């Protein structure tokens, strides 16, 4: 019985492969086994089955149910010099390849890419996004990437693909033809340009890059803060008004601290400097601005006194002067 079991395992009459997530190609297990003439080969949607004879591609089967005989294996029949109607078991290497799109893959710049921006000069840019691909040219893919492996997965080739993407990104952005602010504003157009840039590398491996998306472009934090401040200045326009606004905010924050203005870490001297700047913004520390309500002026002076920027005596004197104008 043991010998019969052993012999029964040497012949294959049903051949198929169920796709596994992330698997691009497998060698069908045929060690010490032979294929029965008339065996059933099932190729599912999104698959291709390739028969190899001594490392050379013979017959290719597309999706469907196939009965293996000399009639539908013309190349293997010719390579093996089989007579018409040959019915003996035979050996062949069989590979299944999936042509399904591998979607939702991520790419990113491990290190910032230095580009020469036409507005800001040299910048170090980081970029992140997603892409998808599929096996397009099986013979090239098998020769360049699969080789003699038993199985090849997306994870096996992802580092190579991400390297090609980073190279294409550096080449596309390195010329600085498009300013960073324009790149960030039109990521859809940038995605299309980079898709065209990475396609040649993918094609060289028998792959097709189906989609490519830029989801994020960023600068180093210090550079981004500088740009944010510059943008704020341009929006405000009046530098003097911007300084007074910033000073007023600093005073409000300082007044809320337990240590007053000095409690924010700048010390008493910094607190006085803020107070003097604020007072200057009010018009020589007490002079009401044209059209400004004296009561609002007194409220501002009170905040200065509470923050420790002016003394009680200075507050009383300025308050009296403003009240006298009302009377």
How would you describe the overall organization of this protein?
This protein is α+β, with helices and mostly antiparallel strands and 327 residues long. The chain is built from 11 helices and 12 strands. It has helices at residues 2-8, 74-80, 138-146, 154-174, 180-185, 187-204, 221-236, 239-255, 267-283, 294-307, 312-326; strands at 11-15, 23-27, 34-43, 47-53, 56-61, 64-67, 93-98, 102-108, 113-117, 121-135, 151-153, 207-218. The strands form 3 sheets. It has a 5-stranded antiparallel β-sheet, with helices on both faces. Strands 8, 9, 10 and 12 form a 4-stranded antiparallel β-sheet that branches. A hairpin with a 2-residue loop joins strand 4 (47-53) and strand 5 (56-61). Helix 10 packs antiparallel against helix 11. The chain is rod-shaped, with a radius of gyration of 37 Å. The model is unreliable at 1-8, 264-272 and 281-288 (pLDDT under 50).
């Amino acid at each position: 019985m043991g010998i019969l079991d052993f012999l029964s395992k040497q012949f294959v009459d049903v051949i198929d492969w169920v796709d596994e997530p992330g698997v691009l190609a497998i060698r069908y297990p045929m060690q010490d086994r032979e294929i029965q003439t008339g065996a059933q080969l099932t190729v599912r949607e999104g698959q291709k089955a390739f028969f190899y004879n001594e490392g050379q591609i013979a017959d290719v089967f597309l999706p469907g149910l196939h009965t293996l005989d000399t009639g539908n294996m013309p190349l293997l029949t010719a390579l093996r010099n089989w007579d018409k109607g040959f019915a003996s078991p035979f050996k062949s290497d069989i590979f299944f390849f999936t042509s399904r799109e591998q979607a939702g893959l991520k790419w990113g710049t491990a290190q910032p890419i230095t580009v020469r921006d036409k507005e800001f000069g040299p910048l170090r840019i980081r970029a992140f996004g997603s892409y998808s691909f599929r096996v397009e040219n099986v013979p090239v893919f098998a020769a360049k990437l699969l080789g003699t492996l038993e199985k090849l997965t997306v994870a096996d080739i992802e580092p190579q693909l991400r390297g090609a993407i980073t190279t294409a990104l550096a080449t596309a952005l390195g010329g600085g033809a498009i300013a960073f602010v324009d790149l960030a504003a039109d990521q859809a157009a940038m995605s299309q340009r980079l898709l065209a840039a990475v396609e040649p590398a993918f094609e060289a491996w028998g792959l097709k890059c189906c989609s490519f998306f830029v989801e994020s472009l960023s600068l180093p934090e210090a550079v981004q803060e500088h740009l944010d401040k510059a943008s704020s200045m341009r929006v405000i326009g009046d530098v003097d008004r911007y300084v007074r606004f910033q000073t007023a905010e600093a005073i409000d924050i300082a007044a809320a601290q337990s240590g007053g203005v000095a409690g924010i870490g700048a010390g008493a001297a910094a607190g006085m400097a803020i107070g003097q700047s604020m007072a200057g913004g009010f018009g020589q520390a007490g002079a009401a601005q044209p059209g400004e309500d004296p009561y609002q002026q007194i409220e501002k002076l009170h905040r200065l006194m509470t923050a420790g920027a002016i003394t009680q005596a200075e507050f009383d004197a300025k308050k009296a002067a403003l009240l006298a104008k009302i009377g």
